[in-house]
Design brief:
Helix 3 crosses helix 4 and helix 5 packs across helix 6. The protein has a 3-stranded parallel beta sheet, with helices on one face. Helix 3 links the parallel strand 1 and strand 2. With 194 residues, it is mainly α. The protein is built from 7 helices and 3 strands. InterPro entries: Luciferase-like_dom (IPR011251), Luciferase-like_sf (IPR036661).
């Protein structure tokens, strides 16, 4: 977490403010030069034009509780995956509250950037095709990524009410994580698609 919190402020904001030393000088310790095994060929990055505002809004895409808290504390926006508004307080409330408690009052309210898949149509075949496309992307995240105890996607869908199905996907080998093994209910909330 220390590294994550250091980089947005020391690196990106440094270059976006056009600091004289640039981003590499701010983000990378001086000892990472050629004398420490680095190539020594890097140089500080600088903008070629001036920013239009002193603070560039930044978003953090994260699911782990510490990084959610970090987003709520330091960033203008947070971008979760599989965001379900009806369950947001239950699933994300504690880390968001922790970060907001430390948030600088000069910052604007934290924006949440939610990715939403949708399809417009009245044909059932079109709707089934759209559901299948969303369904196809889910098994790798829920069942195939991360260590058994540290898959934030798996933890998230369990918190959203799909624990049994998520556990079933988690137990499968990643090479058999086909969309047909993913419950269609993952595409919508348990209330709407159950």
């Amino acid at each position: 977490m220390a590294e994550t919190s250091a980089h947005p402020h020391m690196a990106a904001r440094s270059v976006l403010r056009n600091d004289p030393d640039g981003v590499l000088a701010a983000a990378v310790p001086r000892e990472v030069g050629a004398e420490s095994g680095g190539s020594g060929l890097g140089k500080s990055l600088k903008l070629v034009n001036a920013p239009v505002r002193p603070r560039i809004p930044m978003a953090l895409a994260a699911l782990g509780p510490k990084n959610i808290a970090l987003a709520a504390e330091l960033f203008e926006a947070w971008q979760p995956i599989f965001y379900h508004p009806e369950s947001a307080d239950e699933v994300f409330g504690d880390p968001l509250a922790e970060g907001r408690a430390k948030r600088d009052p000069r910052l604007p309210d934290l924006r949440i950037i939610a990715d939403a898949k949708f399809s417009i149509g009245d044909d059932e075949h079109e709707l089934e095709t759209a559901r299948a496309e969303v369904r196809a992307a889910l098994p790798l995240y829920i069942g195939g990524m991360g260590a058994r105890g540290k898959n934030f996607y798996h933890h998230l869908v369990t918190g959203l009410g799909f624990g049994a199905a998520a556990k079933d996907l988690r137990m499968k080998s990643p090479n058999i994580l086909s969309p047909s093994r993913t419950p269609i209910a993952f595409v919508g909330s348990p209330k709407r698609s159950g």
